[in-house]
Amino acid sequence: MAEAHAKHHDYHLVPPSPWPFIGSMSAFVMAIGAIMWMKGMPLAGLKLGPVVFFAGFIGVLYTMFAWWSDVIKESQQGDHTRVVQLHLRYGMIMFIASEVMFFVAWFWAYFDAAFFAGEAIQYQRTELTGGHWPPKGIETFNPLQIPLLGTLVLLLSGTTVTAAHHYVVTGEREKAKMYLWFTVVLGVLFTCLQAYEYGHAHFNFSGHIYGATFFMATGFHGAHVIIGTIFLFVCAMRLYKATHLTPEKHFGFEAAAWYWHFVDVVWLFLFAAIYVWGHDWSGKALAAAAGAGH
Q1: Are 50 and 43 in contact (CB under 8 A)?
Q2: So what's the pLDDT on residue 294?
Q3: Is CATH 2.40.30.60 what the domain over 1-79 is classified as, yes or no?
Q4: Angstrom distances, CA of residue 6 to CA of 3, 10, 74, 236, 249
Q5: Residues spanned by CATH 1.10.287.70 within the chain?
Q6: pLDDT digits over 115-165, tens only?
Q7: What share of the chain is helix, strand, coil (3-state, %, to 5)?
Q8: d(Cα 30, Cα 18) in Å, to the nearest integer?
Q9: Do the Cβ atoms of 71 and 85 come closer than 8 Å?
Q10: Is 46 helix (H, G, I), strand (E, B) or coil?
Q11: CA distance linking residue 253 with residue 235, whole number of Å
Q12: pLDDT on residue 156
């Protein structure tokens, strides 16, 4: 019987799984709930948009937990051969590439508005921005304050996650745990800094092209920081299980480290483009607003 069940090939044939169906249905419910919530659409006379949205959201979270738990179990059972691990790497690379495209869209929107703030054909934009970038009346963040501190925090987290990966490879699990927990703490600290910054913004998301592009780009990155922190937190917890994340097999942690480095690099571009290049160093935007007020 043992011979009958032995693996004679490098490919893992996945048994029937309910998670693709459950995940897609949960995502569908979450999308419907989001539409109902944003549009204020009633259901049976009640505004149940938030309830429907969070029901779908909980279903998506549960699917993620259960599905990834199954993948970990498959790895522990020896189903992740060298070929399967290679394909997992390909999948993570393609996922990160798709995420890059999201940020390309936000950068495109930002630079389009910035480079063509005074274009004649965009007369409504010119009227709104005052013909220059940053737009009139916008008090931008000083990049040498909270943004610079956040940059240093993320850069430090990149070094700690690299150290953690090194110690996973060398089998020094205690040191790997220490540096991985450092990374998680730094991720939480960055999120707190960004929340503090948002709380002191002198512009809103809605009603202005600068606020919309700023909050979409930095907010989308902030969401990735939160996701990456959770990713690394789960890896830190797995390090407490002796059979998980061994020097020979630890792709789960590698994927988390790749994702975290991607988040770091995107932030460097955001910091340079939006905070430094887009900062009103001369004060022209506020001066223009003050002049218009008089």
Answers
A1: no
A2: 46
A3: no
A4: 5, 12, 15, 32, 20
A5: 1-79
A6: 876 665 565 666 666 667 788 777 888 999 999 999 999 999 999 999 999
A7: 70, 0, 30
A8: 18
A9: no
A10: strand
A11: 6
A12: 96
Residue 208 has pLDDT above 80, yes or no: no
Residues of the chain with CATH 1.20.120.80: 81-115+141-278
Q: What is the pTM of this model?
A: 0.84
pLDDT digits 0-9 by tens, 43-94:
766 788 899 999 999 999 999 999 989 988 888 888 888 888 888 899 999 9
Q: How much is the pLDDT for 128?
A: 66
Structure confidence at residue 4 (pLDDT): 45
User: How far is Cα 134 from Cα 286, in angstroms, rounded to an integer?
Assistant: 9
28, two tokens: 């569908």
C-alpha closest to that of 266 among 134, 113, 97: 97
Torsion of CA 265, 269, 274, 276, to 10 degrees: 100
Name the burial class of residue 161, with classes exposed (0-12), middle (13-18) and buried (19+) by CB atoms within 10 angstroms of its CB: buried
Residue spans of beta strands (DSSP E) within 88-234: none
Query: Hey, what are 72's tokens?
Result: 């970990």
Cβ atoms < 10 Å from Cβ of 160 = 21
Write the DSSP symbol of residue 16. Answer: P
- Asked if 262 and 99 touch (Cβ cutoff 8 Å), the reply is yes
List phi, psi (to 5°) of 46. -115, 145
pLDDT given at position 19: 93
Q: Determine the topology of domain 81-115+141-278 in CATH.
A: Four Helix Bundle (Hemerythrin (Met), subunit A) (1.20.120)
